[in-house]
Write a structure and sequence with these properties.
rod-shaped, 3-stranded antiparallel beta sheet, single chain, 3-stranded mixed beta sheet, 7% strand, mainly alpha, 74% helix, 8 strands
Length: 430
């Protein structure tokens, strides 16, 4: 803008000077003509020269006029351009001012945004901390819920066990169909024992050990039953088998029953001892606790019957070895082991199942089936009858050899005579 103004000033000054010179020149020429004299040669030459100079000057004037017009055109163009530039400058200044305002506004908004970002960051940090606290509380709540669910499940299970215990405790008429060792299954196993292992051992005792039919039957039955007077007297009864009528207890069954009752009685006494309450002087809560504990003990015993029957089996085998002989025990080991397992499972029932093999005077067909002979009276028992519990319903009938009254009278005379012969030995030993 400064350059354009300077050019305009110089051009104006030059035009003023040129216009002044032209006016002066034309003003002086009439005077010269009026004062002119007769030209001489020198003057002619001078005039010619002056005319040439005038023409040259006129040409210069025309040229300068043209240049002036051009300059005026340029000046106008420059003015117009200057006006445009001015307008552009004003527009640019306005835009610059707007940009400055916009910059200030953006700067202010940036500051506000930065403050908001800082606020949001603080809020985010607080929310993150709150979220972590809530997550920890949620995790703890979930753990508490899981624990409560577990406790609730345990309480439901316990309640179900208590209800089941109250329903089934001492009630053999309600059978657990999921129990593979329920009374009906044990009755089937006892029948299979008689049909299979008993038959094999019976044939071995007759074939390999030269036992009589009745002796073999007594040995196999004695594995299930033992006399009330001790082991040596049982040996005497086995040797003189007609005296076998006195046997009325099962060795496997009786020992299993004795061990099972001892465990429950000891556990019950121990619980009352730990509670510090004498038996009979306790409240209902303690009774429920003792019943639940005994119920769990019974359940545990039902699940782990194999180890318990194995330990009892070792004890029974020692007794059998000292009575019927080691060789006989070895050949009858399968029969003995299965018999002990079945007897143990029967004894741990609540109430225990009952094996009945008493020799009655009259053959009761409701309890026994004939072996090879039938009759009005029983000669000897071959296989015991099984009841759901003592004085309970019959599960399986036993097997007994029948005899008539005449045979019974004749056999009684023979047995009395043998008893008199063996009385000294009997009195000495027993």
């Amino acid at each position: 803008m400064v350059t354009i103004k300077a050019a305009r000033i110089s051009l104006r000054g030059w035009l003023i000077w040129l216009w002044t010179w032209v006016l002066d020149h034309f003003r002086s020429r009439p005077k010269e003509k009026s004062q002119a004299k007769v030209p001489t040669t020198n003057e002619n030459n001078r005039n010619t020269t002056l005319e040439k100079q005038a023409k040259e000057r006129e040409q210069k004037i025309v040229s300068l006029t043209k240049d002036c017009k051009k300059l005026q055109s340029v000046n106008e163009d420059l003015k117009e351009r200057n006006s445009i530039y001015n307008r552009d400058q004003i527009t640019l200044q306005r835009e610059c001012r707007q940009l400055r305002e916009r910059k200030e506004d953006l700067s202010r908004k940036q500051n506000e945004n930065e403050q908001q970002v800082d606020t949001l960051r603080r809020d985010c940090s607080q929310l993150r901390t709150r979220n972590e606290d809530l997550s920890r509380q949620l995790s703890e709540s979930e753990q508490q819920i899981d624990a409560l669910k577990k406790d609730c499940g345990q309480l439901r299970t316990r309640l179900s066990e208590v209800a089941s215990m109250q329903l089934t405790e001492g009630n053999p008429n309600i059978a657990n169909l999921r129990d593979q060792n329920r009374p009906e299954k044990l009755a089937e196993r006892l029948s299979e024992l008689y049909d299979n292992q008993w038959t094999d051992c019976y044939q071995i005792l007759i074939g390999n050990f030269k036992k009589t039919e009745e002796e073999s039957i007594h040995i196999l039955l004695w594995i299930v039953k033992v006399g009330p007077h001790g082991q040596r007297k049982v040996c005497f009864f086995l040797t003189h088998n007609r005296m076998y009528m006195s046997l009325n207890h099962a060795i496997s069954y009786d020992i299993c029953l004795d061990r099972s009752q001892i465990v429950l009685t000891s556990a019950k006494d121990l619980l009352f001892t730990v509670a510090g309450t004498p038996y009979g002087e306790h409240d209902k809560a303690l009774d429920i606790f003792v019943q639940e504990t005994l119920h769990r003990l019974k359940s545990f015993r039902n699940k782990n019957f194999k180890s318990a029957s194995s330990k009892i089996g070792q004890e029974i085998k020692v007794i059998l070895t000292s009575t019927i002989g080691e060789a006989e025990v070895d050949v009858c080991s399968c029969f003995i082991e299965e018999c002990i397992r079945i007897c143990w499972l029967m004894c741990i029932k609540d109430p225990p199942m009952y094996i009945y093999c008493d020799k009655e005077a009259v053959f009761d067909h409701n309890k026994y089936v004939p072996y090879t002979k039938t009759g009005q009276e029983i000669s000897y028992v071959v296989w015991p009858a099984l009841f759901l519990h003592r004085n309970g319903p019959l599960m399986r009938k036993g097997v007994a050899q029948g005899e008539s009254k005449k045979e019974r009278a004749r056999n009684d005379k023979v047995n009395a005579a043998n008893w008199e012969k063996l009385r000294p030995y009997h009195e000495q030993e027993y």
